[in-house]
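Take a record.
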Amino acid sequence: MNTFRKEIIHRFLLFMSLILIFAVGPWEVAFQNSFGESAIYLDFLTSTLIVVAEFLREGKKNMRTWGKTLLLAFPFASSFSFFGLTRPLIHSLWLIKAPHAIKILANTKFLATLPGMKRHYNLIITMALIGLSIHFFACIWITLTGRAEDPTTVYIKAVYWTVTTIATVGYGDITPTTNTSRIFAMIVMFFGVGFYGFIVSRISTFLFQNDRRSEAHNEKMDHLTAFLHHYRIPGNLRQEVFSFYEHRLLAKMNDEEEEILTELPSGLKNEIQTYLNIAPLSRTLIFKGCSEACLKDAAHSLQRKVVNPKEMIINRGDVGYEMYIIAHGSVRVIIDSQTVATLGKGQSFGETALIKEEPRSADVESISYGDLYVLTKSHFEALMLQHADLRDNVIKSQKK
């Protein structure tokens, strides 16, 4: 089992243990052993989840580290019940295990290379902690104010009071009646101010956070708009400038990414660039299903070509000696002055020229500024000699 998978399983087990800790412990305190003997088994289950999670993560630890883990995971409530100590307050000892699980779940270093997954992970953990915190405060409120109605109504009212207090709404329809409950209400109010701000900031970050390339692109286009407006550039010329910059900004890496590549050794930089070229190449019909070695060699052979709007890339009737892959931009395929297809990023055209020596069957014209990857026939034939899987693909395509 690889390290990343172990880390995912480890965190899932801790997440489940955290839910049991916060759900069962405070509930038992509030509703006076309503789970009965089931609480004992749930306590043991929580401890087992923590121990198994830590074993998956660390394997064989030294005795000191394992001693700390076992102490944190020790089923206190269950152990006391064996001696006849079943007072509800003992169930509050469940919460001793919570800080350990929260500390590990809050650490997102293992997702440093997966920013998209990291944002979703943070949102899930945040929403879970919000729900568990509300449940925790609601149970304390029930403990302090009593249970005059049925458990369902009592719990819903307690959750309602907690949410309105944390959100600083406070309708006043449910109010504390004892000094202890008033002190607790003030604590929740102070907690609620920071908690509410934390919730808003976390959710806002998830909803509106764009990747850096999009942000750089939007900022550049805003500066360009202001520049063209200031100097009153004519509309048709503005459109040309916008079209070019749209191509340039979307096709190129931003300055920070380019700087990262520049700082790398030339050999490593070339390797990364090769893998960037593999992605569009692997989607073409001829190279589909080919080995990584074949794709890597083919990527080394690609040449980049920049095209302008309305530039004729292929002329019908010419004999072709190259195929094209669209890295950015779009082109249209024309037969008898009629557009029969429009191709965009990641699509290819002209593959037939690599397999058969026959005239081109259509014109291909660029619609906008674009970047193309070009693979010549001489390079393709050299690849066929080296890779049997590519030869098989060619044979299959010739039979169609």
In short: The mean pLDDT is 77. Residues 327 and 351 are 16 Å apart (CA to CA). Strands lie at 303-307, 312-314, 322-328, 331-335, 338-343, 348-349, 363-366, 370-376.
